[in-house]
Amino acid sequence: MKKLVLSIVMVVGFAAAVIAQPRAIGGRVGWALEASYQHGFGTSRFLEIDAGFYGFDGVQGAVVHDWIFASPSWTPKGTWDWYAGVGGAVGGYGFLDIFEKRPNCGYVGVAGQIGLSYTFWFPLQLSADFRPTIGTWFNRDQVGFYYLGAWDFALSVRYAFGVR
To answer: Are 136 and 148 in contact (CB under 8 A)?
Structure first.
């Protein structure tokens, strides 16, 4: 009985700790059109997960672990944060390319990210970031250097949970 009560307390405590962390959900528009989710770990780290479409014939996903390295107080309300991080990305393109007849390709790569975000005093977060991705593209016949994501600038709009 003691083990059951202790297990329930631990599960509830873990769930409360996860739920209490800052989170945001929204969209990211730049090289791609992506759904975006951020999950905070404490006050200076967060995980950003993005997935969506790019161009007219591609899909991609990225996971980046970011660190907040500066929080300037430029305005009396709201919060500014400079952040940077590293992660990975996967995707594919060429699925709908009927004019050039290029083969379907997939890629896997390393993604870095640096950006600036502003979280309003109400639940809205705006951010601008640069997330270059380089790696390897591949298809049935070839392998090569993937560089199409090297100039990924984007703007994001997210609903920030827990902002009062």
So the answer is: no
Q: Would you state the structure tokens that stand for residue 164, as one six-digit string?
A: 């009062």
C-alpha triplet 36, 38, 40: angle, nearest 5°: 180
Contact 51, 60 (CB under 8 A): yes
87: nearest Cα among 107, 115, 111, 109 = 111
CA–CA separation, 149 vs 78, rounded Å?
32
| pLDDT number for residue 18 | 45
Return d(Cα 144, Cα 93) in angstroms, integer. 14
73-106 pLDDT, tens digit per residue, is 999 999 999 999 999 999 988 766 555 556 688 9
- The answer to whether the CB of 87 falls within 8 A of the CB of 63 is yes
Position 15: which residue type? A
Query: Containing H/E element for 6?
Result: helix 2-20
Read off the pTM.
0.81
